[in-house]
Design a protein that fits this description.
The chain is mostly helical. The protein contains 5 helices and 2 strands. It has a two-stranded antiparallel sheet with strand order 1-2. Helix 1 packs across helix 3. The chain is globular and about 25 Å long.
């Protein structure tokens, strides 16, 4: 468990919650197992590049957003990516 893995996991949790997905929902959308999602979110293991692409795509964010390589605006919206409110947005914490 590295500090970077924990930070990436937190960003993934934020992205998942911003689109009202449970870990089970994210697992279903990505084809990954729920325990894998849980371990990545807790920073217990690093996500592979493919896993990051699948997770980011399912949450409507960029891989760089999950890796904290980009500066996010207060609200990040992916046009055309539906949620319960009709669009996905990054949390405004």
């Amino acid at each position: 468990m590295s500090v970077e893995d924990v930070a990436v996991g937190k960003r993934i949790v934020d992205a998942r919650k911003a689109v009202d997905m449970s870990q089970r929902d994210l697992a279903r959308e990505t084809g990954l197992s729920q325990p894998t999602i849980q371990r990545v979110e807790k920073g217990e293991r690093a996500a592979s590049r493919l896993e990051l692409v699948l997770i980011a795509d399912a949450c409507g964010v960029l891989v760089d957003d999950c890796l904290a390589r980009t500066a996010l605006p207060m609200r990040f919206v992916v046009p055309g990516a539906p949620t319960t409110q009709g669009r996905r947005s990054w949390p405004t914490t």
